[in-house]
């Protein structure tokens, strides 16, 4: 099924207004079971111009409806909202040099390697750019069943390419980056992010490890039949992050659309008016530096961020000077730095299992629809 523009529009709220086509894309996606429900929003000119929700937590008719402020497991969007944002702040404060070798911060990464091992040349910027040579996703949780064992497994991974020579999206790389940042700041990533990013921006619904009482208000991500053998709801879906205690550089943050739009406003340097004039955390020079595509040629990876590829999940309307990130769970965040526009889409496309891939069609169709509505 193609999620394209439809002439007939129905739904709630803005569905009869200028965002009607966007609503139709999402309604069609829910009908096709791309996901049971979603929350979505858009920031333009420093103001929230769209913030709504459709569908339910699951496909059961009596499941809770999704609200505009529903909190989701944002999975790999953690990489930019938490880990990369922390790195940006540390760079601005002169506390982080991106060319620092990883082995200087985490000696265990090089302790047992030969003198000429290319791992000794891996720098923190390589981890951000996903060009360290480390492998991509690995089911480390299958044999590393404690936080220390999983970290040690990451530290011991052999490189599959020379640093800077090949781009490969690497969860282990961001696990190590998160641990490196924790070592440098002398505290856990969750406490630093909460104090230095989430609280200043008024992101009251954002953080790692939701309280037990809050879990029923979060859409479930999966019926896990292979590892935890239970419904995953209100706890991180990513198994490696779960073994790490729910706090990791690559996954673990839970958030909602209003909070993420506050975050995008900070990236754009345009604090939201309804956020009480939240501070601008990031200098534009820092944003521009982290938004630059990295080696090798042809990679869409910037520093921590992704940029539009061809084709792109951001659709066809975002400029090349855009940054964003996707999540395995179905969530996404895209920011057009030239147009000062940001779009957030949160969904649990992995419910009840991970087989459905319709989100790949939904994302570009939705992004094109909301951009054209402006």
TrEMBL record:
Residues 27-353 form the Beta-lactamase-related domain. SUPFAM superfamilies: beta-lactamase/transpeptidase-like (SSF56601). Keywords: Hydrolase. Coiled coil: none annotated. GO terms for molecular function: hydrolase activity. InterPro entries: Beta-lactam-related, Beta-lactam/transpept-like, Diverse_Enzym_Activities. It holds the Pfam family Beta-lactamase. This is Beta-lactamase.
């Amino acid at each position: 099924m193609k999620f394209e523009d439809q002439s007939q529009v129905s739904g709630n709220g803005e569905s009869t207004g200028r965002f009607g086509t966007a609503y139709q894309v999402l309604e069609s996606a829910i009908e096709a079971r791309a996901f049971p429900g979603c929350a979505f929003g858009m920031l333009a000119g420093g103001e929230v111009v769209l913030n709504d929700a459709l569908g339910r937590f699951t496909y059961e008719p009596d499941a809770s409806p999704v609200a505009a402020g529903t909190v989701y497991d944002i999975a790999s969007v953690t990489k930019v909202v938490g880990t990369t944002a922390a790195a940006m702040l540390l760079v601005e404060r002169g506390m982080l040099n991106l060319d620092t070798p990883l082995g200087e911060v985490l000696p265990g990464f090089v302790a047992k390697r030969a003198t000429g091992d290319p791992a000794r040349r891996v720098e923190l910027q390589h981890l951000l750019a996903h060009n360290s040579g480390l492998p991509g996703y690995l089911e480390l949780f299958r044999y590393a069943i404690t936080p220390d064992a999983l970290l040690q497994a990451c530290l011991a991974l052999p490189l599959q390419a020379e640093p800077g020579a090949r781009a490969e999206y690497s969860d282990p790389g961001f696990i190590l980056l998160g641990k490196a940042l924790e070592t440098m700041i002398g505290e856990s990533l969750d406490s630093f992010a909460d104090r230095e990013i989430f609280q200043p921006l008024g992101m009251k619904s954002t953080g790692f490890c939701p309280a037990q009482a809050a879990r029923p208000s979060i859409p479930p991500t999966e019926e896990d039949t292979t590892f935890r053998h239970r419904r995953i709801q209100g706890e991180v879906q990513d198994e490696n992050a779960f073994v790490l205690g729910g706090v990791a550089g690559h996954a673990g943050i839970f958030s909602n659309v209003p909070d993420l739009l506050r975050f995008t406003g900070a990236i754009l340097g345009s604090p939201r008016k309804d956020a009480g004039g939240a501070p601008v955390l990031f200098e534009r020079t820092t944003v521009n530096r982290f938004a630059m595509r990295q080696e090798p040629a042809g990679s869409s990876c910037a520093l921590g961020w992704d940029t539009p590829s061809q084709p792109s999940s951001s659709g066809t309307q975002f400029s090349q000077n855009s940054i964003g990130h996707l999540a395995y769970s179905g969530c996404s965040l895209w920011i057009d730095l030239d147009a000062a526009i940001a779009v957030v889409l949160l969904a649990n496309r992995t419910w009840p299992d991970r087989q459905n891939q319709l989100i790949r069609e939904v994302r570009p169709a939705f992004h094109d629809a909301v951009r054209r509505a402006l």
